Amino acid sequence: MGDVTKLEIPARRYSGFAQTMHWLIALTIFCMFTLGLLFDDFPKGAKTWWVNIHVTTGLVLFALILARLLYRARNNPPPPPAGLSDVVRKAGTASHHLMYLLMVVIPIVGIVAYVWHGRIFDYGLFQIDFHVPANRAVYPKAEDIHGYLAYILMGLVTLHVLATLWHQFIRKDGLIWRMLPGGK
Question: 91-116: per-residue pLDDT in tens?
Answer without folding.
Answer: 999 999 999 999 999 999 999 999 99
